[in-house]
Amino acid sequence: MFEGLFYLFVFPGLAFQVFCGLAFEWVDRKLLARFQRRVGPQWYQPLADLIKLFSKEDLLPTGASGWVATILPLISLAAVLTAGLYIPVAGFTPFSFEGDLIVIVFLMGIPTLAYYLAGMTSVGIYSILGGARSLLQYFSYEVPLLLAFSGPAILSGSWSVAEILKSQAELGPFILFQPVGFCLAIAGLIGKLKRDPLDIPKAKSEVVAGSLTEFSGGKLAFWHLTMDIQAIVGIFLLINLFFGMPLGISPWINTLIFSGEVLLVIFILSASSSIFARLRIDQLASLGWRILVPVGIIQLLFVILMGV
Amino acid sequence: MFEKMLNRTYRWAQKNSLWVLPFNTGGCNGCDIEILDLLTPRYDVERMGILAEASPRHADVLLCTGPVTYQTRDAIWQIYSQMPSPKWVVAVGSCGATGGVFTGSDTVLGGVDKVLPVDLYIPGCPVRPEAIIAGLIKLQEKIVKGAENG
């Protein structure tokens, strides 16, 4: 009983993920600033932003449904926190079961739907545009992302993240066998997190802030927290699927390797958001369906042939 | 006791995370270009937690540049009322403070304080980026002391 609550609220659960999410936001913003030769924010910046948003007034335009707007960020926050529970952190996982990869992918899709609904409930023009764009973007990146995730699952013969991690300890990191799959997964993750090359739904110069244009105060704070935790959960998932680690030596060494891999993936994400400019929505759709999906299918065929 | 601590935490957070909405109330665009300088690597205000936001509902500070004309008077009031409180208004440039060289024109109402409660005036024509940074730091000190509009 006590152990279960500890898992839920402290270690792989709420407190740990909130801490990791805020730390991710700081590292990401700092790296981005350093890439642009700026100084970058202080270490407490994400925390100060979050507290400030909670201290502000909560406004909604007339005609917007208040309780729907309140419940959407809470649902998406709950979904990403639940997804984070099933992902092994440095090889430690309390709730693993066969097929949890599918559950994680499903739970990680909920914030996108909630983001779309948030755009539709708050009646501004920019929010509706942002919501529609987020759904269009979802159809472009989700298929390559799923193709990329199914590569490791097929190679290890299991749809459980912990099992995939275990078979990587025997076979070697899967990024050596499927580097293309890893690149697809990074592209899909950038699309899922609405980060810079693919920040079409919340493009500041086009649609103000996308679906979240009309949100303020605590609701906006919950949305920001959801985005951060979604990012960190996605990064953890990517590491478990593609990098892996030698299991069973010492938890400290595992933690060290895991943190190094997390920093590496954050570095890749920040670098790609500082290098590339934003795509148009039609460019993204054609990139997704004309290039990424065929490449993903070829990678998958390669994995199946190699696995046999 | 608890409430006092909460208030102090809130003021600390508000001080360290000022999200700014630049708005041209009818000026010559000179001050707007100087405001854009703040985001460049040379001045980089993100190190003080200041970010430029595009939506008034996310913003804490309304940076008004230029004199208020009769045409922008309603728009500026609408934008101000869309911002969630606590919120602050900063008038940037000589025109924002008094109307500047446009005083007396039959399309110009005057400084920003004719329409909105202004917390801080930053003079200059155009304002230097260093002056804007100094002004925003003064605003942060004001926030810590607890002065608040709106």
Task: Write out key terms for the chains shown.
heterodimer; A: 72% helix; B: 150 residues; alpha/beta; Rossmann fold; five-stranded parallel beta sheet; two-stranded antiparallel ribbon; globular
What do you see in this structure?
The complex is a heterodimer of chains A (308) and B (150). In chain A, 72% of the residues lie in helices and 0% in strands. Chain A is mainly alpha-helical and 308 residues long. Chain A has one domain. In chain A, helix 2 packs across helix 11 (251-275), helix 6 crosses helix 7 (161-171) and helix 7 (161-171) runs parallel beside helix 10. The longest helix of chain A has 32 residues, at 125-156. The N and C termini of chain A lie far apart (44 Å). With 150 residues, chain B is α/β, with parallel strands linked by helices. Chain B has a single domain (19-145), classed as 3-Layer(aba) Sandwich (Rossmann fold). Chain B has 5 helices and 7 strands, in the order αβαβββαβαββα. Chain B has helices spanning 2-16, 30-37, 73-82, 93-98, 129-145, and strands at 19-24, 51-52, 61-65, 68-69, 88-92, 108-110, 120-122. In chain B, the strands form 2 sheets. Chain B has a 5-stranded parallel β-sheet with strand order 2-1-3-5-7. A two-stranded antiparallel ribbon of chain B has the order 4-6. In chain B, helix 2 (30-37) links the parallel strand 1 and strand 2 (51-52). Classes of the chains: A mainly alpha (308), B alpha/beta (150). Chain A binds chain B through residues 29, 33, 36-42, 44-45, 47-52, 55-59, 126, 204-205, 208-209, 212-217, 220, and chain B through 9-10, 12-14, 16-17, 41, 44, 46-47, 49, 53-55, 57-58, 60, 82, 84-86.
